[in-house]
Design a protein that fits this description.
Layout (H helix, E strand, L loop, with lengths): L23 H19 L8 E2 L1 H8 L3 H13 L3 E4 L3 E4 L4 H25 L2 H19 L5 H21 L3 H17 L7 H19 L3 H19 L4
Antiparallel strand pairs: 1-3, 2-3
Length: 239
């Protein structure tokens, strides 16, 4: 996957990244700048792998300097940008290596959650997920596939993987998982979900959930690992 690279312009003296004390208003503006940059990445107005100057981003996003700098620092800690002082801001490239790393990290985090959900997860929550998966599969097998079903699939993915993360009861992992969603979104920008692929994904989810219903932690973990391996293969075109 090759992305356009925009030529960076050098910053004038005195515009290096600083760290002044901020106000609540500054924090709010920084959050808006952070969200605007993510939107730019997700809608491709900021190309994957782009190298931009601070001035480029100010023009592109209509942001003022300080909130933009604060947002970029946050994005740098999350690994989405690399800041080269007085030179450019380099955005992460959504390539094969990033896809592999993202799914490897998801596997490391969620396999433990699968075990815990199987061992002591709420039975009613698990059964509700099972029932809703079966209901969506039935809709899809009747040849229904539209934006509505796509949204339903996304919601079920969010619920299942959210349950796996929540089962760990670890705030640090939950924060990391929220950041990881940005990587997942980036590497899946070119992903086209079709009805057969949606059904396949839902059936893989059911393998995890059925193991949880049976309170079989080993099977739940194995099904989770297999699901991510297959998802990665689909993403990079190996399946």
């Amino acid at each position: 996957m090759r992305a356009a690279t925009l030529k960076a312009t050098r910053e004038p003296p005195g515009t290096a990244f600083s760290d002044p004390a901020g106000t609540d208003d500054d924090a709010s503006l920084a959050d808006k700048a952070y969200a605007a940059i993510l939107r730019g990445l997700f809608d491709r107005s900021i190309p994957s792998g782009a190298e931009l100057s601070q001035a480029d981003l100010i023009r592109l996003l209509g942001m003022t300097v300080q909130p933009l700098r604060d947002a970029l620092r946050r994005l740098e800690t999350e690994g989405l940008v690399t800041i080269h002082a007085r030179s450019c801001i380099r955005f992460v490239r959504a390539d094969l290596e990033l896809s592999r790393s993202t799914y490897q990290f998801r596997t490391l985090i969620e396999r433990g959650g699968a075990r815990i959900l199987a061992e002591r997860g709420d039975a009613a929550e698990i059964q509700a997920l099972v029932d809703d998966h079966h209901a969506l599969i039935a809709r899809l097998e009747s040849s229904a596939w539209s934006a509505e079903e796509n949204v339903a699939l996304d919601l079920l993915e969010e619920r299942l993987h959210g349950a796996l993360i929540s089962a760990l009861r670890n705030e640090l992992i939950e924060n990391t998982a929220r950041r990881l969603k940005n990587y997942v979104t980036l590497v899946r920008l070119d992903w086209l979900t079709t009805r057969p692929l949606a059904i396949r994904t839902l059936r893989e989810h059911l393998e995890i959930l059925n193991a949880c219903v049976a309170r079989d932690a080993d099977a739940a973990e194995a099904a989770l690992v297999a699901h991510f391996q297959l998802a990665l293969q689909r993403l990079i075109g190996m399946e």
